[in-house]
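Record pair follows.
FIRST:
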Amino acid sequence: MQVRYFDECSWRDVGDGMIFHYVDGEGETLAEVGLKDDDSKLWKFEVILPQRYQFHGANPAGYVHGQVNARKVAEMILGSTIVSK
């Protein structure tokens, strides 16, 4: 498995402020955050992980209030699995 470091990763706007991808230094998408419900400001996050870190074959995903919070949750999951500081 390739080692990835936080300082080589960044968030990229891929959907006019509605969808963001967290990518590594090579451009591989590690997580996605997207606006799900504009009225309640719910953002969906999904972290793309290798199968050994998945739960019953599913990537971690959920809904969080606010874009910043969704990004933090995705970064926390990545920091506990495949991204090193």
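SECOND:
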Amino acid sequence: MNKQDLLNKLNQARPFLSTQDFIPILTHYCFDSENLVAYNDVAAIKLVLDSDIKGAVPGSLMLKMLLTVQEETVRVGMHGEKEVKINSTGSNIKLPLLDPEEFIFDMPDTEGCDLVQVPLSFLSGLEKTLVSIGDDPLHPERSGVLWKVRDNRITLYSTDSRSISIYKWEDQSFFKSDDVDLEVITPMFFCEQLIAIAKNYADELKTVDLYFNTTENYVIVELNKICHIFTRLIKTEEVTDYDSILKAMLPDDDKDSYCEIPVTMTPALERAILLNNTGKLDEQKSHITLTGTQLNIRTQTESGLVSDEVEFPKEFGDVEFFLDPDLLQRSFKYCTQINVGANILALTDDENFQHLISHTSS
């Protein structure tokens, strides 16, 4: 077996191994001679992989052992019913094997699920929405991405209570799902792994197929029929009414209400963040003053003071507020246009993505 091919599969599955050993099987790679499966009690991955193994191998140990092998080819197979043997020139490695009866996860069938089929390029929009995901355990609905699928449109939303991200996608020539009407929340981990793993299949990947089962509360992604990713959806009694919030807060859709983000804003925000990081965690805000086309970013802590002037190509009115500069800087990775309002900062990629950041008067 080619060692690098095996390592590639194991590394794709590694994030789906549990880091807790309360249930041993959740920390193991599970092999059935045709597939490799890893499951952490919430999410799972199934990869097509031909092998001579039928059972479960300690995941972290197997991966670390293979990384020590220098040869390009290794022999991996069963050694009796309780061990896996990994051989290379001069090396003989034996690892314990759990019986297949220990497996506690089978990839569900996709029959009867709602199919949402998108191109690989859609995942770039999904990635943008991750910038606003929260981590408050009291608000699980904010720890993932809300999908609204209807009328051949997909709208993605996320929020961390301080910012909101929205991605809208519509392609009548590609997306054929007139009968699909969904409103579900996918966990951040699932979104991150889907984006990362899909890149491994980018050259041959024609579509990303998502099978949503709202009755049993899960989604399965199929990539070229050789990779399946499973996760449970986030259950919540309360779903944020993003559309009402956006209607009240978003500036006019007129593109003239936005302007290019000045190049000098990035280093100015970096300086503000550096200084804020020397202060108290709950006081990491900068004082922002906009007068005409002049924006001043002033940050002061016990470690010092930094003040930067940024010139905008247009006037937004006179505004004064406090803002965590990190909230703004992180959005620059995905946005090129900005609008400064009395209550929010609105940013966009000038296409299908919008990002709102709230600011305060103190």
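COMMENT: The chain has three domains: 3-102, 114-242, 254-358.
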